[in-house]
């Protein structure tokens, strides 16, 4: 048989497995966010130990490498200044006449559907550094957002 028609293994035809991409910029987290990352690492280590199938174990190891890197690069956000929006703040705002409460958190804690926004989100960026009672610009509109209250996120 010609060498051209021989296949050495199925491995050469599988999609390559790349590492999980990291988001650019600093990995700033709240204390609760750091605890969530550490819990994820512990859970993945236990899952790897319990997994019997090599392919599934390798997928878990890949995810563990991601979370270990996130844990290593995590920087806990500094404490909030009294009444000033920042990472770890719960901010009540009024936008387009509608009241909304937003938590500003680290990237791994973010869940926009639950109003937990990463500090890198445009809305969070507009709020950071502002104080309760202030109006801030957003989406090209002057004084589009009114900050009603700013307090630390309860732990």
Taking Cα atoms only, what radius of gyration do you get, to the nearest Å? 22 Å
Work out the helix count. Answer: 3
The helix fraction, in percent, is 25-40%
Largest sheet: 5 strands, mixed
Q: Give the strand tally.
A: 7
> Which spans of ≥5 residues are poorly predicted at pLDDT below 50?
none
What does this structure look like?
Helix content is about 30%, strand content about 25%. The radius of gyration is 22 Å and the shape is elongated. The termini are far apart. Strand 6 (about 135-140) and strand 7 (about 140-150) form a beta hairpin. By secondary structure, the protein is an alpha/beta fold. The strands form two sheets. Strands 5-4-3-7-6 form a five-stranded mixed β-sheet. Strands 1-2 form a two-stranded parallel sheet. It has three helices and seven strands; from the N terminus they run βααββββαββ.
Brief descriptors of the model:
single chain; 155 residues; alpha/beta; five-stranded mixed β-sheet; two-stranded parallel sheet; 3 helices; 30% helix
Give a quick summary of the entry.
The chain has three helices and seven strands, in the order βααββββαββ.
Secondary-structure blueprint of this entry?
Blueprint: E1 27-29, H1 31-50, H2 54-73, E2 74-76, E3 89-95, E4 98-105, E5 116-118, H3 122-127, E6 135-138, E7 141-152
Parallel strand pairs: 1-2, 4-5
Antiparallel strand pairs: 3-4, 3-7, 6-7
